[in-house]
Amino acid sequence: MSIAVKFETNAEKYYPDYMEVVREFSPHIVDCAEGERLFLELFESDSQLKVILSCELLQKKYYEIKVKIDIFRDNLAKIAQIKRISKVALYDVLKMLSGVSLPYGSLTGIRPTKLFHDLKTQGLDAEKIFKDDFRVSEGKTSLVSEIVNNQSSVYLKEEGVADVFVNIPICPTRCVYCSFISAEMSKVKKYVPLYCNLLKEEIADCKALVADCGYKIRSVYVGGGTPTCISDDDFIGILSLLDFGQTEFTVEAGRPDTITENKLKIMDETGVTRISINSQSFNQSTLDIIGRRHTVEQIYSAYEAARKYDFDINTDLIAMLPGEDFDAFKNSVDRAVELNPENLTVHTLALKKGSVLKVGGYDNASDEEAARMVDYARNAAAKAGYSPYYMYRQKYVSGNLENVGYSKPGKYCIYNVDIMEETTTIIANGAGGISKSLNLSKNSLERCANPKGLDVYLARGSEVWKKKRDFFMSEKSL
After folding, report:
1. Which residues have C-beta within 8 Å of that of residue 309, sequence separation ≥ 6?
2. What is the pLDDT of residue 74?
3. Is the distance from CB of 53 to CB of 89 less than 8 angstroms?
4. What is the pLDDT of residues 283-321, one digit of tens each?
5. 160-171 mean pLDDT
6. Contact 291, 320 (CB under 8 A)
7. Counting Cβ atoms within 10 Å, is residue 476 exposed (0-12), middle (13-18) or buried (19+)?
8. Which of 67, 225, 245, 345 is geometrically suited to a Cys-Cys bond with 182, CB 3.0 to 4.6 A?
9. pTM here?
């Protein structure tokens, strides 16, 4: 049964942050105009913060906290602390109303591990703060702590270090859960050669930019989309340009039906060290429902072909896909583990705006089933010798859970850690790419986005990377 509230606050500048907490309680709490009034009052001075929450459903009882806020590094730190304190207060009241505890408590950001790192860097007891201050469950606090500890062998936060990302946002078909900008090959086929040629020009300029800025490249990641769905000529033309002296070179091959012998040879010859063969499910009926358009047998064939080369392999699974119960998901986990990939990434389904599932009204809100699935995956991975090494969360995700990357010892993906912990500069190429410039001395991370759509990217041509060059050169001069 859902409880309807009408959330209001006098602190309008924090309203989007507060609504993130309210949304986390869906479907147990629903915000609507006809709901009972839930009002958060925030009073802040130079030295004290007072939060008062009142709700008609609590018989107009007041929930009030007072906190001293007189010691902060800067105004941004003060704002962050105010938001955190008031979000916890709101969480506590919503928990009282619904009787539901969320696994990540009041945390709504996509990077819990980054927050954990930051707290540890300040010399604070991150585990205690997660459990006591943010109301994160014992199990999820343990998971975050384990991931942060496991990252120590690859975690690097150093000025002048960067990763290169290349986006090929084209897929054979569109999965029903996808909200990415990726276009279906059948709809953009005539533009693909033009896109690849322009992308090669951007990569060439990226190489010059790396040299001009003196960046040391740790990792190169080619994502999408499904990069392996383009022609062999375009594929080798792009990959052959991506020698930046990196130690890790990933291509997200993705769809098993696009992984041909020629594509594998091209990746081997151009120095690729890591690929993804993403099954998502080992149940054929599920693959058909979600629009993957490949068979379970093709997953096995792709693995067998790829194992002739010296690639580290990742495979993805998704919990709470339509038509799957716990036993169906368990089957996928067991079969993926039997293949023994170096990396196994377990996602929890998120109903993103624009996806076919979201538009169609699919319900992924079974918290208990979702938790049971991801717990099984975690235990099965541990028994098979995998350790969790990176994670992130998304909005509208089943059970308010997370996506976790598991790895065999010594096989952690550097790029995944770098981008999730935001410890390096990212130089992004292609439509939809978002570059990030990290300035450690100023503790800042600035962003510069390429156009999202293929059409806009093609129309703007060299203007795209000129803007990016100006962005990085100006950041370097600061």
Report:
1. 264, 267, 268
2. 61
3. yes
4. 999 999 988 889 999 999 999 999 999 999 999 999 999
5. 96
6. no
7. middle
8. 225
9. 0.94
Neighbouring CB atoms inside 10 A of 76's CB total 11
Question: Over the chain, what is the mean pLDDT?
Answer: 92
> What is residue 448's three-state secondary structure?
strand
| Average pLDDT of the segment spanning 191-217 | 96
Half-sphere exposure of 296 (CA within 13 A, CB side): 11
| CATH number 3.30.160 given to 1-99 | yes
Residues 6+ apart with CB under 8 A from 395: 20, 23, 350, 352
> Beta strand pairing status for 343-348 and 387-392?
unpaired
Q: Work out the percent of the chain whose per-residue pLDDT is above 90.
A: 76
Token digits for 423?
């410890």
CB atoms within 10 A of CB 454: 23
Asked if 253 and 230 count as a contact pair (C-beta separation under 8 A), the reply is: no
Q: What is the pLDDT of residue 346?
A: 98
Q: At what angle do helices 326-339 and 367-383 cross, to 10 degrees?
A: 20
Rounded distance between C-alpha atoms, residue 108 and residue 196, angstroms: 37
Query: Over the Cα atoms of the chain, what is R_g?
Result: 23
pLDDT band, very low/low/confident/very high, at 76 (cuts 50, 70, 90)? low
Lowest mean pLDDT among 28-32, 144-148, 194-198, 389-393: 28-32
Cα-Cα-Cα-Cα dihedral sign, residues 478, 213, 239, 314 = negative
Side-chain half-sphere exposure of 250, counting CA atoms within 13 A: 28
Per residue in 349-385, pLDDT tens? Answer: 988 777 777 767 777 667 899 999 999 999 999 999 9
CATH fold of 154-429: TIM Barrel (3.20.20)
- For residue 155, how far is the Cα from the chain centroid? 17
N-to-C CA span, the chain: 54
- Is-contact 201 221, C-beta < 8 A? no
SS3 label, residue 316: strand
Does 73 score more than 60 pLDDT?
Answer: no
Half-sphere exposure of 380 (CA within 13 A, CB side): 20
User: DSSP secondary-structure letter at 459?
Assistant: H
Measured in degrees and rounded to the nearest 5, phi and psi for residue 319 equal: -80, 145
Structure tokens at 225: 């989309």
Report whether 281 contacts 245 (CB < 8 A).
no
